[in-house]
């Protein structure tokens, strides 16, 4: 992720790829949602009753164009509107669809347009798998067994195409795509990318930790949810192209079609982001007026007192680790990262330029010697900086790297000694 960020504009982090709050932050939208709430509750109760009939009809009718048309019309009554940019061309004969993942019902939406099956990779099997429209592929104890099952399924010409989501996790669909896994591209050499965009009024399309039941209830609550399906031309694997290269190429094509960026964030990064959110809850939710300018909100005097107190506490923790860094620089970077570890890394690796004052430089230079006297066994050997300015560029570069590593080791040790027990408990 750091290499990708250094190659061009900063890539969006996990906090921008996933929505943490369902309700809008705009005060006007929140007021409109409150006024709409009685109507939404009535729609929810009515659509729960109608949704049962849609489920029964979809189970009774065989898989055909008539069934897809009838179910699609009934889903429109439920507030689920599906549109496609251009119908899929049958002559391409792609038997593997590759789509981005936005909601828990993406496979159901694509199945309303063409016959396809999405395998259940994790979750309940049996009736729940079948009722949600997933394909149960049997034993998925390992990735090799899953691939063998999917290859055996695709080898039969009478089976519908496979619909796979290489992101392996949902996003908000507005900013970027997660890094595509390479295993879906090892089933067949020809895949067809499918771009999905979802819009709905009042509330976010999906949140990072919501279940499919919660998403279904919110879908029935809002007036409508619009799914836009974009069919892209089939992509063939080149003779010298690896699976990883093909995955990157398809990811770039989908990102260009959807108008988002292609990131290196993975599903594992999303799980780690959710873990941090649970152990470090954000500030209390306060609606703010709508601001037309895009970008992350900066720290300002209008923030609540609790937010200022929290930022001051985080800045003090960074100041204890890096005493030579001015507090103004720490506050500015914390307002963007909202994370002590990320701010320390930015300051140590030079991403945030600053000019330390002479009064604050003295403790940082004396810190290692004092710490060595208190902890002679755990403290690393301090590297003394050169006193004379060397004429050789190589010597000056080595001196800079030695000072940087010494400062990094010292800061990491101080942070571990002071907050190591807290971090170890939070990571469990």
TrEMBL record:
Q: Which residues form the CUE domain?
A: 310-352
Q: Name one Pfam family in it.
A: CUE
Q: Name one GO molecular function term.
A: ubiquitin binding
Q: Name one GO cellular component term.
A: lipid droplet
Span-the-membrane segments of this chain are: 33-57
The places in or outside the cell where this protein is found are:
Endoplasmic reticulum membrane; Lipid droplet
- Descriptive protein name: Lipid droplet-regulating VLDL assembly factor AUP1
According to its UniProt entry, this protein's organism is Eublepharis macularius
- Gene for this protein? AUP1
